[in-house]
Specification:
- This protein is α/β, with parallel strands linked by helices.
- The protein is built from 10 helices and 8 strands.
- Helix content is about 45%, strand content about 10%.
- Helix 2 crosses helix 5, helix 5 runs antiparallel to helix 6 and helix 8 crosses helix 9.
- The longest helix has 26 residues.
- The structure holds zinc ion.
- Zinc ion binds next to loops.
């Protein structure tokens, strides 16, 4: 009888070990975006190992999945993704092939990072693939809004706590500590951007619309006629005229955007074009979300200065 009890106890211990914390005691968290894996590390610390599938210097809509992703996902304890079809086209098939039922949408270890965030550009009708728009469920780039990352950190904390309730208090305390520091940084960026409300910018992809709207920048247009669609010569020439008419002399782009269109527009309008940091890890010197906005705000302010914008009122003169 005693022997049976020992066997049952050992089997139970095994079951517990093979549950939530299976990566050498750490919860194995996978994400699509590096911003999310960064936050999972800040909140999970020594209880979590996290890894992202989207290379931060590549366009998240279009990536080549590696076969190793399937093996990793098959052993994932938690999967957190941006959702809104940001990475669905190439990542969803990989998630399904992993045969890990818990991490497919609807599974108990699958989480989206956007609940509670105001999603912009939600279409008022169903778009079809033939229209070429890569944002059929609304603008999925809410990680370009510095303020929204606070909510993302809460969502990631909730995901970790749900997957690993024994450490829920630990995750809550770490999230609160991270958020306290981040809120100070948010105030710094808000102060730095405040004089530039109404400053006119062209953005390449509508990813940057979240950033522009957060700080009240005035979007003259996008280099892409629709998200993911290459501009025609006629479209660019119309945009050139619009920039000249409005006095817009700043273009903001993601590092993977087609430089030839940016350069043509800049040459024809006399505009200053700068890249921004699209995610933690791009450029390589950006090692945190705070550094991501320090870099981006720095680039934008430098562009305003070079363009000869006036700070009072922000708009170009
Ligand atoms: Zn997009």
């Amino acid at each position: 009888m005693k022997r049976l009890k020992t066997i049952v106890a050992a089997a139970f211990a095994l079951l517990v070990c093979s549950g939530a914390a299976s990566a050498g005691g750490r919860l194995k968290v996978y994400t699509d975006l590096s911003d999310f894996s960064y936050l999972a590390e800040q909140i999970g610390k020594d209880k979590v190992s996290s890894e992202n599938f989207v290379a931060p210097y590549q366009n998240p809509h279009f990536q080549e999945p590696k076969p190793s992703f399937i093996m990793k996902l098959s052993k994932a304890d938690v999967f957190i993704e941006a959702g809104l079809e940001l990475t669905k086209a190439w990542l969803q098939p990989i998630v399904e092939q992993s045969r890990n039922r818990d991490i497919v949408p609807g599974g108990k270890r699958h989480f989206y990072a956007y609940p509670g965030i105001d999603i912009i550009d939600v279409p008022d009708r169903k778009l079809t693939r033939f229209e070429g728009d890569v944002h059929p469920a609304g603008n999925p780039h809410y990680n370009y809004d510095p303020q929204a990352m606070l909510r993302v950190s809460v969502n990631i904390k909730d995901a970790l706590a749900e997957a690993d309730p024994a450490n829920a208090a630990y995750y809550s305390a770490n999230q609160a500590a991270w958020a306290a520091g981040y809120e100070k940084a948010l105030a710094r960026w808000r102060d730095a951007m405040a004089p530039w409300k109404g400053a006119k910018v062209v953005i390449y992809h509508s990813s940057l619309r979240y950033f522009a709207q957060r700080y009240g920048l005035d979007e003259t247009g996008t280099v892409e006629p629709k998200p993911g669609v290459t501009p025609s010569g006629q479209y660019l020439s119309d945009l050139t005229e619009k920039m000249k008419a409005q006095g817009c002399r700043v273009i903001l782009y993601d590092p993977w955007d087609a430089k030839k269109f940016v350069e043509t527009l800049a040459r024809n309008t006399g505009a200053v074009a700068v890249d921004i940091s699209p995610a933690v890890g791009s450029p390589k010197t950006v090692a945190s979300i705070e550094q991501r906005w320090d870099y981006t705000v720095g680039q934008v302010l430098e562009a305003f200065r070079k363009a000869g914008y006036g700070a009072a009122g922000g708009a170009a003169k």
